[in-house]
Amino acid sequence: MHADLIIVGAGMVGSTLALALQDSGLDILLLDRGPLEVAPWSPEAPFEPRVSALSAASQRILERLGAWDGIRARRAAPYGEMQVWDGSGTGQIRFAAASVHAEVLGHIVENRVVQDALLERLAGSGIGLLPAVRLDGLRRSGDGWLVSLGDGRQLRAPLLVAADGANSTIRRLAGCTTREWDYLHHAIVTSVRCAEAHRRTAWQRFTDDGPLAFLPLERDGDRHWCSIVWSTTPEQAGRLMALDDTAFAKALGNAFEWRLGAVLEVDPRHCIPLRQRHARRYVEPGLALIGDAAHVIHPLAGQGVNLGFLDAATLAEVLLHARGRGERLAELRVLSRFERRRMPHNLAMMAAMEGFERLFQADPLPLRWLRNTGLKWMDKLPGGKALFVRQALGLSGDLPELARA
């Protein structure tokens, strides 16, 4: 089977790339190990444990690809404020969408909801979908790639895109090298119902062991639910996972300083080891890495999937412009345009998240004083906060056309 482009990984990022190229005239195959089926939806369904904080730039991309209506038809929780404070001091800072005349800072959306909305759009797109496949091999073949599947089929294409996640099979089989290290932290994720409504605010407390986030969720107008991302040491994570729901709810409320009152209900918990990873190159001749296959950052600000959406939109833009000029899409000089636009932005975001994580883990008294003083000082600078908000919303920087206001 031959195609112009093979995208491996039909998650949120890979599906976005495929949809962004659906009118390009390219013969596209989108592969995934999953079934690629839209799950039955019920408004009363329990929350999925994995969520994303979608920025305004990501929302624009999804709107222009026709997927945002499908997300809103299910559920998405907008938030207009963010409050961050240091649990070891008195420093705190508040960000508001109103500071840049925006209605919201973003939306907290379950990953499954985003995925299903994208799959609905893919169903009528004309893009070739190959669900439930296993990759058995990958090798260069002439001017392109030969992909061997577990059922014996072989696929050929001059251009291959790896969108298959943090543990990318394509990245490994292609021999792409990465820089990576363990954060020595695990993230506990779940959904909880609190005694007080979240007021459409994203909350984050930096504890001695790691950041704790309460991200707003909504179900049938009920704003007492939050998605929890609790980053802590492996030892502490093990102790917390061993608690029953009542004891965990008490420990969680205490760690959060009871900002939303008592934690009344706790959904099933999941524990995820945290590891940072960044590919040394995003591209080779005939190959591009996007999303988590190229970079994995700390979930501190929920920016991972936003970086992935911008990767997909930028790569699609580069390929469409090159095709319009009659260039060969698999050439390194074409693909390098994508890398030059995305790598500096991704590295800057990774460095910022790493700096925050290290600063708030620091124990020496001078650093504690510095971070508390810095938070208080920054909170009194409307211009500085507005700049941060504009960056988080995706209102500045080198944005692809799909993400521009």
Automatic annotation (TrEMBL):
Coiled coil location: none
GO CC terms in record: ubiquinone biosynthesis complex
Name of the gene encoding the protein in the UniProt record: ubiF
Domain FAD-binding: 4-346
GO BP terms: ubiquinone biosynthetic process
Subunit and partners: Component of the Ubi complex metabolon, which regroups five ubiquinone biosynthesis proteins (UbiE, UbiF, UbiG, UbiH and UbiI) and two accessory factors (UbiK and the lipid-binding protein UbiJ).
Organism expressing this protein natively: Azotobacter chroococcum NCIMB 8003
Necessary cofactors: FAD
Superkingdom assignment: Bacteria
Pfam families, sorted: FAD_binding_3
Pathway entry: Cofactor biosynthesis; ubiquinone biosynthesis
Record has Oxidoreductase as a keyword: yes
An MF annotation (GO) of this entry: 2-polyprenylphenol 6-hydroxylase activity
UniProt entry tagged with the keyword RNA-binding: no
InterPro entries assigned to the protein according to its UniProt record, in alphabetical order: FAD-bd, FAD/NAD-bd_sf, Ubi_Hdrlase_CS, UbiH/COQ6, UbiH/COQ6_monooxygenase
Record keywords, A-Z: FAD, Flavoprotein, Monooxygenase, Oxidoreductase
Transmembrane region(s): none
Family of the protein in this entry: Belongs to the UbiH/COQ6 family.
Protein name as it appears in the record: 2-octaprenyl-3-methyl-6-methoxy-1,4-benzoquinol hydroxylase
